[in-house]
Amino acid sequence: MMTNLNRQLLRKEPVKLRYKVLVNGNKSLYLDIYVKGKRCYEFLRLYLVPETDKYAKEQNRKILEMAYQLKQKRLFEVMGRRVETDSLMLPLQEDRRLADVVEAYAEERRKHGQGEKEGRYGSVMTLKMHLRVYAGENVLMSQVDKDFCIGFARYLKTAKNLHQHIKSQRVLSDGTAYLKYSIFRCVLNDAVRKGYIEKNPTKLVPAVDRPKKPDTERDYLSVEEVKLLMKTPCHYKDLKLAFLFSCFTGLRKSDILDLRWKNISNNGNKYQIYKRIQKTQRWQTIPLSEQAMLWLPERRDEPDDARIFQSMSNSSLAANIKKWAKMAGIKHKRVTFHVARHTFATLELSLGVDLYTVSKLLGHSNIATTQIYAKVVDKQKEQAVDLIDGVF
Q1: C-alpha distances out from residue 57 to 29, 31, 49, 63, 78, Å
Q2: This prediction's pTM
């Protein structure tokens, strides 16, 4: 004998199993529930992966079995009227702590060597400290909404520096506040890709509440200063070669340290670099000028996979560059390895290379980033014109 519940199930299923395709190609399974004229969605936190082999197919089979079991459970609950739609939004799996997600993000960046490895890891872990001060350690990902993000953005504008080696608790600089918020945004983007949350709530934060990127001047070396460094001996030969190679290619320190002989090839007319850029993880081709080629070390019997600048130590770079610049008579600029990249950009623009081409050479995804260097060149032009006033 057919029960009333079975008759209702035969008419129309109010619970449907659906999926959403994520950025990484996985499919996030969820239930589409329609009860009493109200629709809601329950994300199961179960994911189908691309079926590239038999193991992936078997994994997907098991995941689908679990999903259909959960669907059937919800279906009987709904048809039996034992639950209301408002209660269906609760996750079926344990919610993750924001602190754990941030720490996992930091570990992944260190493991894969993105950015400056330890430096990048430290920046993310400092973000974790600021989140703890702002909201404690037990905030769940489901609690990270628009209001949480607005509050954290406002907190950063007046937050104190939490570095242990800094004794005075001064307020974060505008640049540091902007950096911390940018890393926070990246962490949430990664959480979306992994299916921990559906959307990044920082996208809902009004511009007025976000930390602003300071419009600071970027140090760069003039042609005369580059020539001074070329003439000045350096106690660390590879450091001098690598720094000047960066001045003529625009490569970041992370990519200089990772540069291999296999990344340099001859296309028939010119030598070029072809490698995956550490920061963006995109492949980039950089033509090499004759001047850039002069600052490559001599290759002996090293294999193709050997690093080109082998004797460089990341930990002592900053101090050694400072000493070398001082020996060259450059005392009024804070010369860091990244200054070499700035030097390349301003030099190219000063020589008349268009902004779009310089943007491509630097690997910028947004030409607005390159425009910062254009402002530097415009200021150079203004200062050059002003020199006339001193003549008459």
Answers
A1: 16, 22, 8, 10, 31
A2: 0.55
